[in-house]
Amino acid sequence: MALCKHSDNNHIFDITPVENLFLHEFMLKAPGDFVKVYLFGLMQCYNPDCTQNTIEAFSHALGLEISDVENAFRYWERQGVLELCKDSEDKLSIKFHNIKDLLYNKGLDTEKSVYKYRDFNQNLQHIFDTRLLSPQEYLRVYDWIEVLNLPQEVVLMMVRFYVTRKSSKISINYLDKVAQSWAKDGIDTLQKAEDYIQSNDDRFKNTVTVLKYLGIYRSPSKAELDMCNKWTNSWGFEMGAILAAAQQTTKVHTPNFAYLDKILYNLHSKGYTSRRAIETHLDTREGANDKLKEVYRQLGYKNNAPTPEHLSMYKEWIEVCKIEHGVILLAARQCVRKKTNSFESLDNLLREWLKNGLVTEPDINTYLNKRKLLDNEIMAVFERAGDTGKIAMRDRKLYKQWSEEWKMPFELILLAAEYSTMAKQKMPYINKILSSWHANNIKTLKGARADQEAHVQKQTGSASKGKATKKQLDFNKFPQHTYSDEDLEQLFDNIEDL
Description:
It is built from 25 helices and two strands. The chain is mostly helical.
């Protein structure tokens, strides 16, 4: 036995020197588990009597599979910092090199690492054409084969695809991320690689086409590729449909994929995915915008862009209520005449007409002409009674009752108006007179005047007994009342609505 040695548990409390060159030149780009294997092996070098100095012990101590430990040692061998050896009994031993010696005394032999990939190297360099790969770049590529377990032919196909798309200046760091993604997704055969490339080649071409349509001339980003893939595969848009929708991006100063994505989302939510459906929808919407601007002009709005709310209301009038555009313009003019030119007033008027079965221009023009004649007659009644107010809906209801339900001649209504000149509430008083005549079946001027005369005689007979006073009495001498709003409403309860 040796004269001097450390105690058995010394390795637990001792230190393991790690060269800073290893930290800077090798550790930073190495997989984490591989670094664990190297450092744990380095500790064994300083403590050769440790019971963990076997592959199996490494696997157990580090919580890794034996194959992972072996892959880690092969990785570090390719980096040149250690060497795998086997004795006459085929037992594995690992020789750790001094990194300063390797780097400063030219001890790192990259030719030894790359020799077994001679044919692969030639094919790889041919893909990059005039760009010469460095030994360190070759070592990174070998990791895809030995660490990620991607076959050589799959690696070559992957590199060729991305170099074709992004030029030979593509960085190994970018390709390294792609290789890790392929390994993670299980793209480890030529068939899987061809399927993936075909899918992504279409996606790439489609994305470039959309970018050019938007006036953007560059390679697409990953986010743009994913977005275009969503439009075609998840949402089911044809390429022609996407370009048709892209026409709408001209409304913004700088067209981009994010704005186009919102347009396509709205179209997809409405079920428009084909080019024909989208073009028809957009043409209809543009037509609706132009027609809505006509409505705005009729209402007196100047330089107003149609709002989504108003456009939605307009489409409901046209598509759901089946109201003609000409009727909408006619209603807008009526609102202006009434000095209520808000869009809400227009909506209320259209719905009132619809409720009364007025949906075509001829019907509404007939109605308006009839209403105009009605209002002219009511105004004549107002003038005869000395009323200077404006015609209200309740006035129309009363007049329709007198003329249509009671069949009172217009001259008779005017006569009743004359008898109400002294009344405070003209129309209710006229209604009282006409109600009396209607109850007594009086339909002529002669009968009405006779009824008035009899009424006057009755009222003045007892008051003027024995006196020679003469007072002119008429229907204004009827007892008059002041009507509240509630009284008026009750008066109109039984009158048919317009």
